[in-house]
Amino acid sequence: KMVTERYKQMTPDRRMRIASSMVETARAIIESSLPLNLTRRERRLAFAKRLYAGELPDAALLAFAEWKADI
Fold first, then answer.
1. Strand partners, 56
2. Which pTM does this prediction carry?
3. pLDDT in tens, 32-65
4. What is the DSSP annotation of 2-66?
5. Which one, 4, 45, 62, 64, has least CB within 10 Å?
């Protein structure tokens, strides 16, 4: 209950910054746990599975893994 009250007192901007920081930390933890010898596709698929398995269909995870950004 104390945590809930504390979050209610924060501005929406502050809550968003905290959430964003937590997501970035989770991403860093996942990335650091993946083997270094994975291909880009394998790395993206492993990342997506660890973060989104059970929440997104396999087709979405595969689409994420295979997406090529115009860099």
1. 53
2. 0.74
3. 999 999 999 999 999 999 999 899 999 999 999 9
4. HHHHHHHHS-HHHHHHHHHHHHHHHHHHHHHHS-TT--HHHHHHHHHHHHHBTTB-HHHHHHHHH
5. 4
